[in-house]
Amino acid sequence: MNKQKTAATSIGLRIATTMYQMGIDGLPRNYELLYEAYSGSNPELTKEFLAIGKKKSQRALDELGKKFLPHHHEETLVSKTNARMQVQMTTFMNLLEQEKSSLSDYGTMIDEASRGFASQTEPDPATLTRSVRKLNQATELQVSKSAALVAVAAQQAAALEDIGSDIANFEKMKFVDPLTGLANRRAFNRAVVRIYATPALPMMCGLAYAEIDDFKRLSELGKSDIGSHFIQHVGKLLHAGNTTHEFVAHLDGNRFAFLIRSAQESEIMRLVDGLRTAVASKPLVHPQKLRVIGNATLSIGVAMSTVANDAGKLLAYAEKAMTASIKGGGNRATLYTNAVPANANKGWIIYQPE
């Protein structure tokens, strides 16, 4: 078992033990909440989790979950959205009724004036003047009411647009890592499943695992929560270096993943090396002391979708390749391939930095 799996197992055991000791129900949403809190990937969540106190009620945990893991509480959003929609539709119906009544009154006034004109063979100027004045007043009133209706309708349209925006943002944030702004593990899992959606014809791509080298030592140099700052730093550099808009995700801790759509190993490794170079391009600076801590480097393992017939094997091969990069000293990318060179005793090729 490599050190990444050992670390994950350690966190998992710690969470299970903590949940038991605190009397927290073994619900999936509780497990993920504690995982996020103890993995250190979201310092704000960790801080608020600890602030709840020793006795953590399910209600308090759910309130925290609604803030940091809203995907577990979709029913709350649906309920709120439904209530808002009902208010908006009721308001619209009332506006339409008002407009209908207003138009009816306006029509009545026109009808009365028309009958008055028709009943007189030679209407006197005074009567005509009064009728014209009444019609002008009625028209001005109707125009005023219509303008008010348009203004209110515009407000209603804006409110409905806000509701739509809230729903869209909610759906988007379900798959975004709050610390880095990259895709999260949930988005990564979904993307990996899609690779083999058609087993006989998998998506042509390369999947890469990446780990920040020497993360523990560099994080401890800054102490406090410099680890989170370090991960954010790497996330920003990956954003900037991802000029071809490949799929890049922050999984947890100091681990990232890339999914690059190409059938060419050389092209995938070129793009992977580009991301690795981007991460090393700017030094990490202590946020308070403003001193340089060091440049980040990545150990990366890549596996092509063509060497595996399911997602499990593909992930395992990428993990194996990343372990080879770590054991090789870090700051390199390893490609796991079934095209083994003659006399080679390993199923991978190391691409070292120039």
From TrEMBL:
InterPro entries xref list: Diguanylate_Cyclase (IPR050469), GGDEF_dom (IPR000160), Nucleotide_cyclase (IPR029787), Rev_trsase/Diguanyl_cyclase (IPR043128)
Q: What Pfam families would the database entry show? A: GGDEF (PF00990)
Enzymatic reactions: 2 GTP = 3',3'-c-di-GMP + 2 diphosphate
- This entry's Enzyme Commission designation comes to 2.7.7.65
The top EC class, named as a word, is: transferase
Report the superkingdom from the record. Answer: Bacteria
For this protein, the record's Gene3D superfamilies field holds: 3.30.70.270
Instruction: Provide the GGDEF domain boundaries.
Output: 203-338
Q: Extract the PANTHER family matched here.
A: DIGUANYLATE CYCLASE DGCM-RELATED, REGULATORY COMPONENTS OF SENSORY TRANSDUCTION SYSTEM
The protein in question is named diguanylate cyclase
Organism, by scientific name, is Hoeflea ulvae
